[in-house]
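Q: Hi! Curious about what Methylglyoxal synthase looks like structurally. Here's the sequence.
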Amino acid sequence: MKIAFIAHDRKKDEMVNFVTAYENVFEGHELYSTGTTGKRIMENTSLKIHRFMSGPLGGDQQIGALVAQNEMDLIIFLRDPLMAQPHEPDINALLRLCDVQGIPLGTNIATAEILVKALDRGDFAWRELVHKYKPGVEE
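A: Let's find out. The predicted structure is below.
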């Protein structure tokens, strides 16, 4: 499965702690992240992550491009709802794309934990069917 990690500045420590706690679940998956978040995760785990640009520089949009093509299976995006973000339109576009494509998205630690426990149980097998039978792709 393709999993992306994004965290606003004041949520990066929380993301690192979360991914560290579930490192064994994330092993064996294709992992993606915005720049600084991915760097921090790799410094604290043995996970290999494909890093895009930082969020404000276009990383959210790069992940969004994969979402638009239905090439992402799960996103954990720890948002800071109490801090204005300079790239808010990019964030909203990513959230909208996840809704359009039906991509599971955890925007807080409680939802992220539920999603990761489901991932660990194998509850995302339906995503394989999505990739096999993409709407709009002729065979």
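A: A fun detail: The chain has one domain: 2-132.
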